[in-house]
Write a structure and sequence with these properties.
Blueprint lengths: L1 H19 L15 E3 L4 E3 L9 E6 L2 E7 L1
Length: 70
């Protein structure tokens, strides 16, 4: 019986980890290259836009989060 609980805990941990590491890219609308800034967990419209790959930042409740233009 104990191994069932351990398996469930491992499965729960793995599924939570997968959900937290999902890329923000799945929800991005069609856009001109260089107009969206990607951070590790979300994206924002770049202001100002620039060449893809350049550093950028997105505002958050805790300040700016560094990212890269795409």
């Amino acid at each position: 019986m104990r191994s069932v609980g351990l398996r469930f805990a491992i499965l729960l941990f793995a599924s939570t980890l997968m959900a937290l590491t999902q890329s923000a890219r799945a929800q991005v609308p069609p856009h001109v290259p260089g107009t969206i800034c990607f951070t590790p967990t979300f994206w924002c419209w770049a202001n100002p836009p620039g060449p893809p790959g350049n550093p950028c930042g997105c505002p958050s409740p805790y300040g700016y989060v560094a990212g890269f233009l795409n």
